[in-house]
Structures are given as C-alpha cells and as structure tokens.
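Entry 0007
Protein: non-specific serine/threonine protein kinase
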Amino acid sequence: MVDCFGPSPLDPDEGSRYWKWMEKKKTKARDGGILRISPILIVLMLQICRVDAQACQLPQAEVQALREIAAQLGKKDWNFLVDPCSGESSWATPKPESMLLYNNSIFCECLDGVYHVVRIILKGQDLDGMLPPSIVKLPFFKELDLTRNYLSGNIPREWVSTKLEILSISVNRLTGQVPSYLGDITSLKYLNLDNNLFYGTVPAELGNLVDLEVLILTANNLSGSLPQNLAKITKLRDFSISSNNFSGKIPSFIQSWKRLERLEIQGSGLEGPIPSSISVLTNLTDLRISDLLGEGSKFPYLRSMTNMNYLMLRSCGMAETFPDYIMKMANLKILDLSFNKLTGNPSEPTNDDALSICLSNNLLSGPIPDWIITRARKGATDISYNNFSETSVQDACRDNLNLFKSSSGGNNLKAVECSGNNACSKDRYSLHINCGGSEITIGKLRYEADKTFGGEAQQISLKDNWEVSTTGRFWDMKENKPNMFIAENVSILSMNNSELYTSARLSPLSLTYYARCLANGNYTVKLHFAEIVIRDNRSFQSLGRRIFDVYIQDEIVLEDFEIKKKAPGVDKVLITPFKAVVKDGNLEIRLRWVGKGTTTAPQKGIYGPLISAIDVEADFKPPFDWKKYIVAGAVVLPLLLIFIIVGTLWWKGCLGGRISRQKDLKGLDLQTGSFTLRQLKAATNNFDSANKIGEGGFGSVYKGELLDGTIIAVKQLSSKSRQGNREFVTEIGMISGLQHPNLVKLYGCCIEGSQLLLVYEYMENNSLAYALFDSETSSLMLDWATRQKICVGIARGLAFLHEESTLRIIHRDIKATNVLLDRDLNAKISDFGLAKLFEEENTHVSTRIAGTIGYMAPEYALWGYLTEKADVYSFGVVALEIVSGRSNASYRPKSDAVCLLDWAFILQQKGNLMEIVDPRLESEFNREEAERMLKVALLCTNASPMIRPTMSAALNMLGGQKSIEEVVSDPSIYADDMRFKPLKSHYQQISHGGSSTSQVPIFSSDDTGVGSSTTSGHDLYPVNPESTNLNFSETSPLSC
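Output (structure tokens):
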C-alpha cells in the first residue's frame, strides 16, 4: 500500500457509520489477544514498505484504467506524470483543516512485485461526471467511496464483474431505479446509497448479498414494500431506510437479522405497528423508529436489549403506560419517546448524569418528578406538552429543561416561575419577530430580537408577551452546541430587507412561537422564509432537502413544506400569509420535522424547520382609547404651562446651567427615551429611601416601577458633583447607541433643573460581587454552569465594546460590582461613564486615570497607557474571582501572597492551580472548563499587554474553539519587596481597623484628583466595599 499504513477511508471526525463498522471489525480481529508491536518491529516494517515501494510498479493497464476513471468522474487534477501509487499529493492529498468533508486518496497493494489499485476515496470534491464503469479494469479493486459529489446517472452494469466489498456513493444526484444486478456483486459487505434520487421498489435481488453487513437506503424516493428476500441477509448489522415513500407495514422478517446493532426507520412511509418480533434483536444498540402511518402501536418489549445506547420511538401511536424498565437501561445515552400518548409518571433513570430525555407531547400526569428538576444540567430533559398537575416549579427556566405547556393537558402556558406574573397589562394587536436575529426596524415595523441561542430542550422567554420553545436534538452529532439552533447565511444576500434574513431560528424537531396578550379576534399571520444554508449551485452543497410541517393554532397550514422548492431557489424570500382566530388571547405557531428530507447534506445537522421572521397583525382596528387622549391632554397642558414659565425664566437669564446641559447634549443622536421628573418620582415613590438599592460617589440608585409595569433602576446623579455634568453627558453619548444582550440597557434620561438622572433596566439579582462575595445576605449559590455562562457573557459584552460596536469603547472599570445579573443570571456589564471613545488610528489614550485598585492593568495605573488590553486585564481578574469565589481586592491568602491574583501565579508555578477553585462548589464542577477559565484568566492578567489576548480571542478560548497559549507570567512585579511596600502597608491599615469607607484621591495623568468612595461612583448596585482607590506616585508599584 502507499505509505504502508494508509489512512482510513472515511474520517472519524465525520461520525461516519462506516468508521464505526470498520472499528468493530478491527476489534473482532484482535479478540484473540492484545496486539503488541515493538519499536524495532515497526522500524523493520517501514523498511520493508520502502523496499516494496521501490520494487513495485503499477501496470500500464491499470494506469490507463485510472485515466478513463478520471475522465468519467470529471476529475482533472490527477498527475499522470508520476506513479499513481507514489503517494504524490495529487494522488494522496493531505486533508486540509478547513475542509472537513474532503478526502482525495488512492491506495495500492504490492503483490509479487506489482502494484495494484485496491481503494479510491474521492470525497467532497463536487465531481460532476458519472459513476465510472472502468473500475472493472482494476482486477484487485475492493473499495470505492465517492461521498459528497455531484455525480449523476445510475450504477454501471459493468460493476457486476468487480470484487467490490465497500461501496459508498451517498450525497450525489444519482437517479433511476436501484438496479437488480447490484445483487450480483456478492462480495459486497458495505452498501451506502443515502441521499440520492433513486426511485421505485427495492429489488429482491439484494437478498443475494449474503455477506452484506451495512445497508443504507436513506433519503431517496423509494416506494413499495420491502422484499421478503432481504431476510436472507443474516449478517446485517446496520439497516436504514428513513425518509422514503415505502408502503405497507414494518416487515416481521427483521427478526432474521439477529446480529443487527442499528435499525433506523424514520419518516419511511411504512405503517405500524412495530412488530413484536423486534424483541429478539438483543444486539441492538441504536434503535430509531419514528413517524409511522396507520394504526397505533404497542410499546415493544425491549427489556433484553441491555446494550441499548440510543432509543427513539417517536410518533409511533403508542397509547399505554410509560414502561419504567426503560429508565433502568444502564447504557442509555439518548431517549426520545415524544409525540405519543404515553401515560403515567416516569421514574428516575439509572444513568441520570448524561442521559438526554425527550418525552414531549404525551399524556404524562401526576406531579412533575423532583428528579427532572434537580438532575444535572448536562442531561437535557423535555416534558413539554404533557398533562402534569404541578405548575409551580423552582428553577424551572434553567438550560436544558423545557416545561412549556407541561401541565393540565397543555392548556397552561408553562410553570409560573418561568414568566413571572402572567397577567397582561394591556391588549396587543400586533407582533413582529426577527427569528434568530437582532432587533431591527423596517419601514414602520419594529421587529423584536430573538437572538438567544436555543437547545435540545429550551424554553426562551424574552418578552412578557411572547416566547419560544425548542424540542429535539441533532442526532449523530458529537455535540449539540447552542449556536447550532440559529442558522446564519452562508453567502451575501441581495434581496430587499436582507437584514431580516441573514439569520433564522432553527430546530431539529419542533419549534414553537407563542404569542400572549393579544386582543381576541381575526388576525393575519405572515411567515417569512428564506433558505440561507443549502445552496443551488453545481455542488453537493445543493443536494439537501429541508422538509417540515407548519401549524397555526394546532391546524396544519403547510405540509411537506420545502422552502427551496416553493421560493423557488435559495436566498430568495417567501412570505406566506394565513388567517388565524384568537379566542383566548393566545396565538401558537408551530413548525415540526417529521423525518422527511435529508439529514446529511451538505453535512450532518442541516435539517429541521427554519424560519426567518413572523408578522402578526389584527384584521380589526383597536378600540378608540379615550383615556390616552385624556392623559395626553393632562400631560400637554401642564407642559405648555411649564414651557411658558421656563421660556420666561430663560428670557430673564435664570437657566444658564440648564442651557449648558442642553448644549452638551446636542448632537449626541440619542437612541433613548426621555423621562420627566414627575414620572420618575411616581415610579420611585418620590425617591423613597425604602426603594434605594445602591449608593455611589455620584449619587444614589433607586428601584422604580413605571405605569406599564416595567421595573427600572434610576441613577440619581448628584448635582453637587463638579464632574456630574460632564460624566452625565459622556455616559449618555456612550450608552445610547449600544444594544447588546450582555450590556445593561439604558431606557432613557431626565434633565430638569439641577436633576440629572439615568434610567436603566432593572437587574433582579444585583451584582456579581453580591452573588459571589456577600454570602451572608445573598441567597444565590452560583453553580458551575452559571459561573461559566456569566464569564462567557462578560467576555461577549467586552468583545462587543472593543471590536463590534460602531464606536470602539474602553470601559476602564471592569469589576465584579459592575457586572449585574438579570432574572436568569445572565451577565450584563454596567457603567460606561468612565469609558472613552478612541479613534481607529490611535494606539492608546492618555487621559485621567479612572478605575478600581485590584482590577487596573499595570501599564495604565503606572503610566496612564490605555488600550483595550486594560479591560482584558480587568476581565482576567474577574474571571479568577468567578472560579475562586473570592475577591481579588479583599482576599488575603495565608501564604506570602498579597492578593488572589498573586496567589494564583504562585499556584501556577507550583502546578497546583486547581487549588484555587471555590470550595463551595465541592466536586460539582466541570474540571476541564474550570482549568480553561483559570488559564484564560492568567493569560489575560499577564504583565505585558502585548501577550494578553483580545477579548474575542479570550471568548473563543473560553468556549474551547481556540487553544490557550501557555505563558507563565513573571511574578516579580508582585513580589519585589521594595516596590510592594506601599501596597502592603495600605492593606495592613485596612486589616487593623483602618476605615474602609474613607475617600482617597486617585492620581490622574492630568493631575486632577477625583474624590471617590470605596464603591465606584458608577457602581449601579454596589455591594459591601471591597476595593479602594489608591494615590499612586510615579514609582509606586501596581496593586494586584
């Protein structure tokens, strides 16, 4: 063979069933004992291979056959000036990292001094010819893999004379009937015709392939019943016929396949019931049957299948009590029994940690079991659309748990805790959603954002009047990552309003949009579709078929719907209008995959319903609202009077300060609302001290509630602050144009007299510092998954500020108190009042130093050198605090280390870095993620800003998409006694009763001292003070 030890024909990274089949064959070949090969033997084998390679030559007849094969396939890059068995790059191309589906290999064997071609693998090359008849001229040929090309025609009759053992021609555009003479190639062991256009019946002659172990006929247009002759293939291990148009019942002769390990019959067209004889297939590890037609089916007896890993019996019409023994299968990894009529209450599974469970759309009843609520987050659980009696569940909105309509036969919206108060504040008459995208405005319509990543069991409640439910996982994928549930366009879009179609919401099984608070009556619903993933060029990228059904108010409105066919074409908009009646204030739009179409083209995971946008508009005019006009009059008349009074005062020169502020605000192009002082007084009960939730150097922060029920946080800036005017105007200018899920939203502002106020969204769970450090008063206990989500959220917010927003912004005061947590414990960065814009060409900004000791980067604190790497440093400190649960500013290690960061560097040098993990987590954390976060934190806090990564790079490192550079920082910047002495003295003062609330001036590069309390003047929800601003001289060391 070329290189003697040639690569496997199919890449294991692709998750190929062929690869698994080959691995099992290799394992069985080694069952007699453990194969041990010494290094000397390996060297000898390699030497023999080199000698053979020099001695062997490929006969000219086979070279000519390869020329013919190239011409027939349309392959033009084979270099016939060199020996095809030489391993030269045109014959055995190394696989590029960027082309995961590509393979270009030819394999030869040297027999009696002569080379013979035995295997050809040409995958992912878009070859547009036909299947080559000339392989019959290769007398020792055994394997052909032409997966993912653009080949047409049918299987050549000439192949009957070959000794083919492995044939994979999946994901092409081959047509015609499956030829009966295929059954004459009796040497076949592996046959894969998946994802083509074959039609007609399965020939009975395939039963002659008695050595066949794998038969895959998925995603064609095959019809008729399965021939009885297939029962003769008794060595069969893998049989798949999903997504076809077969008729009749599932044949009972499958009981003949005693060796069967994998059986897949999804959306095949076959009818139930599932034959009881399936129980004899005790070697099954993967059983998938779904979307059966005809009568219902009884739950098959599977108790003897102890090796079962993957079990899907979806939409099989099973109406009986849930079989508890299923939950006792110790090796089970994925269980999908959705869309049946199962009753009862499932017991706790034996393999609870990693088991993914989907029991959606059944009639399960009784209280929701505690194990469903408390089980590990890594195991997804979906019990949506059931008949459970319990509607109040603690922590019901966590990831990987879907309780949507899980109670009272699906009549209730969901568990109360997921949406808070379900009462509607007012009737609504329209709704516009940009599915999978950001908030945008097109004409007069404002499309609400729907950008939160989904999951296999996810319930997303973004607004009080609508939410999203996603059910199902992408099977045969190593991992179902959250971003897989939002599709992004793969080419430049040219249609009108293209921003509405650059992304779309996607689900592998069921996707529901649920609108609430609509006035009863008739509505027009417009669903926007555009196929932005599958292509329409001469490539395997165009061979996918996305087929699904659409329901509105539980009535099917689109059946076997394919966007590409109806548009027609890809990247083309299709808007389908429908009429709907709202009777109880609710409107449900549901998209569902029923096993039809393709699942492997252009690659695995490209299937399931996809939708770009939704319009809902009432067909009637809203009733005339007299109250609105009365209120408007009540507001306008006093405003008119105020305008007259203010105009008089201005005329007399009494409003210089106000005019100054108005001049400051001119040209800021604010994207926020304007509030009156009366509104904010009413919202906060006249700034009642009982509503005060924070105190900062520039004023107080109050919790308030607007008339529409919106909870807000009002920052009342002190009019006595000599910096107040400038800070106020700067902050509005910075924040008004910024919209990101990980930034605190600014609702608006108020300027009246000496009052300067900012109105923010309210964060229910205070700050990260409060959750991590204030264990005495905080009821939150952040588990590891939440900490990981918070850290990633902070990184996303900073990456947006640094690299994605139209105005590049340096925050300058990233710390735990400036990271707020919303109801779902999502991290949101607050306080941009200290941030400064910087131009694209500037390498740094040198202004007055502003920040908090313990979080400031050394180059900024010592020399006023400011770049975005200063924020990266602060992020690293916060990431370290998240892992350890300790504050860098106040924690004093027992060792000689002076702070948390110093201790981390010492542990890193000793190789004991994991000792720093928060002991409150005990062993309940992901060690790999924790170690990754610690390494990212230490890289971000490197003393050299050049070594620190950008925030986007740090974000990729946290997610595991990018490797982490191993850099051990020089701890001398922290350990030098002479330079460290002032800092140690300062900490000793604090430790021996020094005031923690005294105000200390901070050095600034423009020699301006800024008074600051221990809590930054911009801490929106400050916690007990744990950081202090210091006065630096030019030779002072940097604090940790």
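Curator remark: The first strand starts at residue 92 and ends at 93. Residues 626-651 form the longest helix (26 residues).
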